[in-house]
Amino acid sequence: MLSELRTMWEVLKHTFTKAETVEYPEQMPYLAPRYRGRIVLTRDPDGEERCVACNLCAAACPVDCIALQKDTREDGTWYPEFFRINFSRCIMCGMCEEACPTYAIQLTPDFEMCEYDRQNMVYEKENLLINGVGKYPDYNFYRVSGMKTASKDKGEALNEARPIDTKSLLP
Amino acid sequence: MPMILVDGQEIAVKEGENILEACLNAGLDLPYFCWHPSMGSIGSCRQCALVQYQNEEDTKGRIVMGCMTPVVEGARFSLKAENATEFREAVVESLMLNHPHDCPVCAEGGECHLQDMTVMVGHRDRRYTGKKNTYRNQYLGPLIHHEMNRCIACYRCERYYRDYAGGKDLGAQASHDHVYFGRHEEGILESEFSGNLVEVCPTGVFTDKPFLKQYSRKWDLQSGPSICQGCAVGCNIAPGERYGKVKRVHNRYHDEVNGYFICDRGRFGSGYLNSDLRLDYAGIKKPDGSFFAVHQQQALETAAGWVAGKKVAAIGSPRASLEANYMLRELVGKKNFVPGYSDSEAELIGSILSILQSTTAINPSIKKMESADAILVLGEDVTNTAPRVALALRQSVRNKAFELAEQMGLPSWQDAAVRNLAQDQLSPMIIVSAVDTRLDDVASQCVSLAPDQIASFGHAVAAALKGGKSDNPEADATAKILKSAKNPLIISGSSMGNQGIINSAAAVAEALNTPETMLSFCIPECNSMGLALLTQNDACSLADLVNKAPKLDALIILENDLYRRGDRAEIDQLLASGIKVITLDMYENSTLDQSDLVLPAASYAESQGTLVSSEGRAQRFYPVHSPAVERMPSWQWILQLAGAVGHKKLSALEHLDQVITACAQSNKDLKGLIDVAPLNSFRNLGSKIPRQTHRYSGRTAMNSGVSVHEPQQPKDLESPLSFSMEGLNRGQPSSLTPFVWSPGWNSNQSLQKFQSEVDGPLKGGSSGVRLIKSSQSGAVVSSEVGEVTLKQHQWQLVPMQQIHGSDELSAHTDEMAELAGHGFIAIGEKVAEKLSVSPGDGLLVRQGDLECALEVRLLSRVAKNCIGFSVGYAETQGLIAGSLVSLEVDTNWQRSSPEMIASDKAAFEQVITEGGAHNV
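Structure tokens for the assembled complex are given below, as produced in the milestone run.
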């Protein structure tokens, strides 16, 4: 009897405490920039697609919901011919973001992905690509890589010496 | 067996091997770069360091290189000693000083030996803050991509390309940390075996260029154990597929056949599988000549209506599986079955088979050929007709060096020392041919003779061996060399289309009459031998079929372009004789265009079957992916057709295993077929063998672009392999190994985990069954030799097989077509002078009524009155081996580009676009 009274007291006491729930969607919750929600593909500071189609995100994905195919631009740089994420399978674990060597794939604080048709949960590259750098403003993979690109010759990457003249005998 | 001690653990080792091999055999992970099981040790990379102790009291020890240290009884080593592990880490750290930040955009990533070794030694952070060395890349042709920045200077490429494969145009340049591996100038790599650089290079300097265009990581490829269809050698390959496309072909190790290497046709010649010419749907011809697509079932009903109760003949194919040929032969009856090679070729292959079935000589595997210490090549350009055999011959001429090394007590794996000792001394190889061959550079003697004279030469050698003295001093000398050899090898083949040459080769082998004599023949296609074994010379000839065509109701053609097999007029007559023509093929060709009903056949990468190689080895190939669209394996089409027409024997069959059993029972020579590979019911520890790696990605997204509802994985009802990542790819019979991977070993170097010992057979044993059993009664051959009488201004045509271009299927691959160039006529310098033409000019070749305008190439040596022509090219279609032709300068000829042959043109254009030669 006493314990029942005590329980009722404890419950009624909560009538006067501040509510933890919010009036979603009128009231939006705060989500940290590192919140793991909808995945985007970002661009480098020069406005080019960051993704180099290395396939590491696809390999890291525990539910295998990323598929892509590598293609080559005229200057020899790699990019994805198609890049597809099946969000109906995605568990927002962020492993792809962690695996990405170019900061291309990033998770965003957007979790509002509802569709009446499951097919609409399949995002292609044009749905994923944003016009921005996301969380990493400065990084451009091809400035670091040893690969020759349209805007950078051999030996012009970060921390690289000029190409060696193999016909020279000088040390 | 000596015992050694490694980290306190006793290991039994093989006498004479080195400690690196001993460690790998014992399953220990000792990192290495420059050592290669078939190229030996040079100790250049310093990666396989370990500590050797002098005796029990020695606790300090000294660092030695594993690959350079022979094992001796009681020797003590440590892999785990701190100074050894630190040393190995320091080596990788220094190799990585200049390594570019390329892994995400490197085609080696995920199967990179350097990545594996870096992880294995535990190196992580680059401490050096200086600048990285960089290099310019070179254009090396359409097959190999060059990215020199990634080089770790292990010298494997140079040692493979120059020392092993005999290439001349790739080497090390410059010195110290500027060393560069490339050509003296940009251009197409000359070697026919350049593709192996992709697998030999432990990092991403040399990568597969066609694969790079449609690249997928190794872990994303679905692979299947397959057999190369490029020639009759039967190399084991592992094609990899993704998104329905066969993306690349890798070597699949077989200790007795191809070992670690395949030729460029095998590696790069499968691009036709993704070509637009492939057939997707069955089609019925409309009156206007075009086809309209019909459903499989409708096509079968139509075919059954034309075949049931009618007079039907069929043409098989040396490029189709044994099973499909067998079924077709059963369906129409022996007397109505044409094997599908040209009539002249049928005779040659028939006689080769009967020689191999009676000869007292050994019919050697490729591995066995490498032990030959004297070689006689009669009339074959082996590099172009059986490329992998030529690579083996390049190794056998080194037996002189190994013999000298043995006398000195030098182990054969001491590569640099053995080469130094022998310098340019080689075992004798005598090449007797009409025109120059790609093995001339390692031959002790080259004799240029017209085809019939080659046969005479062979018989003269045989006569000299039997004790008589011929009137030909060259033949006498050859006989002497062969007689003094321990393991003489005679190689000939069908490429010259000359029966006399084949007979003379057999005569030489019989005359030698030693138990170690080897006799081998090169034959044209992947299943030529299988077809000969199947038909046993009991088949209808193509010419007979043409004659009896008007009496027939229908003709079934299996994977065969008849215009490559016989005279154009005759084939036209056959196909237009008003009979219903049903063609089963995988790609569009002239024969298919003339048919009334076409059925889309699955390619070798989509179907299962058995092929018999030139040595008589029956090997099974398995699908890499399930047949796309409405394609179906040929044997299945025929099976269903047989069911539809109610064929008594065939309609009782359902699965391929039953077909194989029926085929094996049909003929005593094919009895071994049943044991070629495990039955469909085989399970590896209870599960099927996976074709996909355990890291296969994108399973739930690959098809979601079409529909988000995931389809079931395709089922393979005919083999113990599955289109899945579930199961166990370890410990199964070696014919069922789709890819190699082992924990910590992602590159193809993981192969050593699948081998029973370094360079030995795979753990599941050597696959395949040799079907040719010799009665040892001795081959009895005619010593008859043809004769040719030339009129004035006449030349005899000599066929020249081309590795890129002569093969029907691989020629439809873009890169192969680029390398093949145009059809050509090859003449000696004297003829060129006489006609005042130079390479690149045009000549009109007249053979009877046929006139071909062909580009001129020069030969470095040629028999008197002979000229060569490229076989299998559209431009030379109709030219017949051995026929007599006249030549005339083509005044209307347009040179393709000034002073350049076709194969150089691509290099030239590339240089222009990239701004000049730039390896500076």
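The CA atoms of residues 64 and 131 of chain A lie 26 Å apart. Chain A touches chain B through 54 residues (CB under 8 Å). Further analysis is deferred to the final report.
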